[in-house]
């Protein structure tokens, strides 16, 4: 096994929302060899407006956030992750793709995001093992940081749809299935007031 070669960046190119994007990534980050099916399903079915301020919660190397930034050139996109390596790659990938309206920072959910900052769209590919407690925190905090009419979008494995629906209904008072894929579902909720 060539250890030096394994330490080289992995380069992933993908067409997301009609735009070709290039991502550098590395072992240890989620789905380093290709954009995973759930992420792709989420990205392609997000309701993004050209001037939206977006948040990618748990950004990894940045495919969701950078697709949002490319689709909302009149807004800003913040990508956050708890992993310093992920944030470093997301920042470099924003520069690599010329997306000057995208930024990345370390944050455990919303904990380290400027409390005055508000969003029009919060999106996340939630791991199946996230747990109901962390899901409840994310949904509650997203609702608090969305502008009226703002949307939260989550992609999960299909078996978790009832859990996401309950969490959205409890906090937002609404929940919709935006897209059903082969193994994943994109769920959304809108902040009404």
Would you kindly provide a written description of the structure presented here, covering whatever features stand out?
The structure is a single chain. This protein is α/β, with parallel strands linked by helices and 193 residues long. The strands form two sheets. It has a seven-stranded mixed β-sheet with strand order 5-4-3-6-7-9-8, with helices on both faces. Strands 1-2 form a two-stranded antiparallel sheet. A hairpin with a 3-residue loop joins strand 8 and strand 9. Helix 2 packs parallel to helix 3 and helix 5 runs parallel beside helix 6. The chain is globular and about 50 Å long. The model has no long low-confidence stretch (mean pLDDT 95).
Give the SSE layout.
Blueprint: H1 3-7, E1 10-16, E2 19-25, H2 37-44, E3 54-57, H3 63-71, E4 77-81, H4 84-96, E5 102-106, E6 119-125, H5 132-145, E7 146-157, H6 161-172, E8 176-180, E9 184-190
Parallel strand pairs: 3-4, 3-6, 4-5, 6-7
Antiparallel strand pairs: 1-2, 7-9, 8-9
Helix pairs in contact: 2-3, 5-6
